[in-house]
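Task: complex structure prediction.
Instruction: return structure tokens for all chains below.
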Amino acid sequence: MDVALFITCLTDSFFPRAGEAVVRVLRHFGCRVQFPAGQTCCGQPAYNSGFHDEARVLARRMIEIFEPYETIVSPSASCVAMVKQHFAPLLADEPAWRSRAERLAERAHEFATFLVDRLNVDIAGLLRFDEPVTFHYPCHARGIYGAEDLQRWLTRDGQVNLRLPQHVDCCCGFGGMFAVDYPEISTAMLNDKLDLLAATGARLVICNEGGCTLQMAGGARRRGLPLRFKHIAECVADSLGLMKDRP
Amino acid sequence: MSSRAFRKRVTAAIADRRVAAAVHHATWHKVGARAAGMRMLRNPERLRELAGQIKQHTLERLPEYLEQFTANVRRNGGQVHFAKDAAEARQLICELARSRGLKLAVKVKSMTTEEVGLNSALEAAGVRVFETDLGEFIVQLDRDRPSHIVTPIIHKDRRQIATAMARELGCQYTEDPAALTMIARKYLRDVFRRCDLGISGVNFGVAETGTICICTNEGNGRMSTTRPRVQVALMGIEKVIPRLSDLAVFLKLLARSSTGQPMGSYTSLISGPRRATDADGPSEFHLVLLDNGRSEILAGPFAEVLRCLRCGACLNACPVYRNIGGHAYHSVYPGPIGSLVTPLLDRRGDHHDLPRASSLCGACRVACPVNIDLPELLVRMRAAGRASQGRLKKLGFFGWLCAMRSERAYRAAQRILQAMLSDDGSGWTTGGVGPLASWTAGRDLLRPAPRSFRQLWQEELREQS
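Output:
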């Protein structure tokens, strides 16, 4: 299967290892991965901030770059949700663009759901950890996958020592521009979330969202909490020995 | 970027450990209780959807249903008044009290009366007003303001409540909730004996029967609407529902969403004043229908907010509310729904921070019993208020868009970001100016990776494909 990778700007700049893991895992399961070089950002920061003219410019640009591909996969549910849920309404006044947006929406997939639903991969069966793990459920994955899906992917065969955090869908307080526009609130929310994660006793947190990881890893470091964050693609790639570096 | 006043309130709220702890504890508890309550329903998601549809349907035909409702209230012997704004509502009710010589009012908890500022108007008109909901009673004793739609004293702990009651009522200091409740009960019994005016809000107005429905947990609603000789119900025009059978849908959801209870302890259905054959009840029943900006909301892009039942579920679910509490919103209506409703009801006020101060996590949408897409509406309101965004923000997005419009500019921006962030070799940034200062005030910032994914792809990954 040919797959076009939508890497997202945060993964591109901050978490290339997660991107590499996505590529290696997809290849492992027989996909030919392409990387449309022109891609930048899906426009979500502008959209969420109410700068919709700017978001429309980038939505059209995304459509032009990705519509030649049948299947698009991204490590971020949040950015996929932007493409799937917000592009078409954003372009509602331009019928031609709207239908192009709708077609793109059908072809865009979040990495883990793609693995499970399209490639029929049993993620839980592949994962190997030598320590207990916990996870962060990213709010913007609502509508893409649920916290219970994430839990199922991690625990189906009982091999993974999963420590479920309390209030499993509690927000980390990132929220894009919100994190710098309202830093006091964002940080207070972050500290709630870190407390919940730290209370699990696990040190490895599976987090599939670059924004959330940027927020939580930054908070954990500031507070001296021994938490590490990894994308599920990295967990799979490490378990299968697909990465060149050490995990 | 937040306004200085909002930022000050937020910072103070977060720093108040006692309030923060009380609100955290209460909201987490209610989130769990709501989830458990909803699990008992056969198909909670479908019910939320249905409730939203009924409300939306009613809003789309509001004039018809209001006409039917008011005709039936009159047929039942009630008197109907219209108030176009808060001032008119206050004036109407104060005049009712004056013309009938009413001196002592008992109140059922009502956000709509808070919205119009009824209590102080009545007091100024020489009517003594007693809140009879325990929480509101304590708020009134302590000269405080409610900080939650349903749980007005969510920000108070036991000690503060005990202190206020001992000071104001001259009773023995006790922190025992049962003892405190008994003290309030005894005190209010005497008030109920002497009162002549009962004031309530309305949870639902049933168009087909002209019935108003009031939901309470303490029985004070029933006392306040049967004991006084005149009853006034203040109702937002959006509270009407078509049929009595629709009430079944809402009653299944309201208490569950608020407190997790399958149903509130007291559900009062009131259809007009006392009839000749009735043992008790008021001799006059007045319904005051309040617009106060609602028609304007209904005609605009935010009409969906008028579905709201005021259950408070979105407040309980909201991580922003949990951390800043209700008072920081500077509004009768805090939380996610308040962030939408406040700017809409008070168009002249400076509330532009409210829709922006949200991570859009969507916990409110999941909790809303009438399926209001709160995050979507928050984004829509941000877009509508674009002009009020700071110049720096606009400039920032202009620059950002330039960088994102071409791959070459994007790569350049990546390199600039790399260079801008100081490097002590650890891979982390811990300080800076502007947005960087905002970020690093409470968190460290990971530096961009030495090699971006794009470079990695060019240099290593692409060969294999």
